[in-house]
Amino acid sequence: MKETQVDQDGRVRCPVCGGADFSDKRTGKAKLGAAGLGVLTLGVGGALAAAAAPKRLKCRGCGENLKRGGGPYKPRKGMPGYVEPAKPSGADKLAASRAKLEASRAGRDRAKAEREARRASRGAHEVDEKLARQRLMAEREAARKNQTGS
Ligand SMILES: [Zn+2]
Asked: What was the pLDDT predicted at 44?
């Protein structure tokens, strides 16, 4: 048997249709007992047992028999109090895909910048080597001149 649920306002709700109107079966029986000789024949113990028995409720909205629960009310679509779950809207999706695109573009730019930096440093290195070679040759030339000069 399904159990009643309690919504945010503390109202007892039917978990099937969300209705908040119930007929109380136990009360019905108690009335019947009070009207007839039931209470007398059952005695005090019987009356107490009836009072302690789990409260049975019948939803007036959908006729579902329910027992007193108290869990949080979780309305489904079409039930009172139902709130459409926040779905990413089209604009959000667009923004997300745009952000993704920006990120990939940034990554590409970064890779390109790194490539260029590497190329630049390699170029600078080559220039250094050339200069060093020229300097070395100039030094050798000077040394040779010095040797021939002396
Ligand atoms: Zn119901």
From this structure: 58
